[in-house]
Each structure stands twice: as structure tokens, then as C-alpha cells.
């Protein structure tokens, strides 16, 4: 148990569906992240929220829409996805200082998404 | 941006053997983490080690920041050590964590 909880663990959706991934952290952290891990590839950073403000958006298609209502919760809203979006989606959190040093990230167990 | 390269890409060990995994990075960093991703996808923090040496049970890690590499040592390997080991770094701006491609370890009984 890392203190970062993701739900659901598995999700199968059609290309016309709308679904949301949820991440919750119980570590008192102030930054949260979404990563995508496709088969045989390293993790790719998608979004970063620091103090509930989005600070990074790595050219992610608009069919992925993040939401951070507070420092403990992070959502990834999905709509009209493509089969190539099938991947493991990982959430992480960290406590960042003003200088961003010692940014130790803790990961959730991930949501394995299949788009049919 | 910073490049992170891990070697070897794949490693097969017999239970009980020792191994060394390497992570090279192309620029100065202020954070380096080693992770173990188990077969179910869970990423577990192993070490936060921007420099120096740390040990935790059968695992230890050394980072030589001036030479831009880090090593992860696994001694007396067990089947539960199987999975993918990732090295990840932050640049000196403390920004995003950049991951290497990983080393896929398989420990056979």
C-alpha cells in the first residue's frame, strides 16, 4: 500500500463511451500526476497538478480531460477514446518544495484500460 | 531534455544469483529514484538516491552524480524480484520525472 489509491483497477470501454479514472492520495502531498504506460514503453507523463493548478500538459489529446478538485483527488475523464489509448494509466503524488527539490513520487496501482 | 538509459534491457537469473542494473543520465539531476514494477503493474519505490549509497535488505543502490550513473544491486535474487526495474530522474529545475526504458528481470526457480 503506497498511500495512493486508483479506481477502477480495470476498465473496458467502447470508443463512444465516457468514463472517469479516479486517484486519491492520503499522504498529505501537494502535487499529483497522470502517467500513461503503453506496452513495452517507459512511462509518459500526461498531466501535472501542483497546488490544484495544472502546471504541465504534455501535448495530450483533448479526449483526455484531467480534473483536480482538491489536493487529495485527481480525475482523468475519458471520452471518444481510440484503441491505441489502451494502456496502463498510473497516478502519482509528491510533496514539492518551492524549488521543486526532493520530488519523491509515490504511485498508485494503476488502471488497466482497454478500448474496444 | 535529459536522456535516461538503462541496461541491460532484459535479464534472466537463476534464483540465488546476484545482479547489477545500470542507469545512465545525460545531465545533472537533483532527484533519482529506482522503482520496481511488479507483474500487476504496481510501481513500488525502492530508493530515492540522488547521490551516495543506500541499502535496504537484499537491495542496494549507488549513484555517482558527477559521472551521471546509478547502479542497483540485487543480491540472492528471489522469484518475487521478477518484474521491470525503472530508473527515473528530475532535472535541476525540479520538474517532471523522466523514466528510463526499464530493465525486465525474470528470476527462475
Task: List its salient traits.
heterodimer; A: 116 residues; mainly beta; four-stranded antiparallel β-sheet; 11 strands; 0% helix; B: 109 residues; five-stranded antiparallel β-sheet
Explain the overall architecture.
The complex is a heterodimer of chains A (116) and B (109). Chain A has strands at 4-7, 10-13, 18-25, 31-37, 44-50, 53-57, 64-70, 73-79, 87-94, 106-107, 111-115. Chain A is mainly beta. Chain A starts with a strand and ends with a strand. With 109 residues, chain B is mostly beta strands. Chain B is 0% helix and 61% strand. Chain B is built from no helices and eleven strands. In chain B, the strands form two sheets. In chain B, strands 2, 4, 5, 9, 10 and 11 form a six-stranded mixed beta sheet that branches. Chain B has a five-stranded antiparallel beta sheet with strand order 1-3-8-7-6, with no helix packed on it. The radius of gyration of chain B is 13 Å and the shape is globular. The model of chain B has no long low-confidence stretch (mean pLDDT 92). The chains are: A mainly beta (116), B mainly beta (109). The interface between A and B is medium-sized, with 26 and 23 residues.
Given the structure, what is the number of helices of chain B? Answer: 0
Q: Would you count the extended β strands of chain B for me?
A: 11
In total, the number of strands of chain A is: 11
DSSP helix fraction of chain B: under 10%
Would you tell me the structural class of the helices and strands of chain B? Answer: mainly beta
Compact description:
The complex is a heterodimer of chains A (116) and B (109). Chain A has 116 residues and is an all-beta fold.
Task: Tell me the layout of helices and strands.
The complex is a heterodimer of chains A (116) and B (109).
Chain A: E1 4-7, E2 10-13, E3 18-25, E4 31-37, E5 44-50, E6 53-57, E7 64-70, E8 73-79, E9 87-94, E10 106-107, E11 111-115
Chain B: E1 4-7, E2 10-14, E3 19-25, E4 29-37, E5 43-48, E6 52-56, E7 59-64, E8 69-74, E9 83-91, E10 97-99, E11 103-108
Parallel strand pairs in B: 2-11
Antiparallel strand pairs in B: 1-3, 3-8, 4-5, 4-9, 6-7, 7-8, 9-10, 9-11
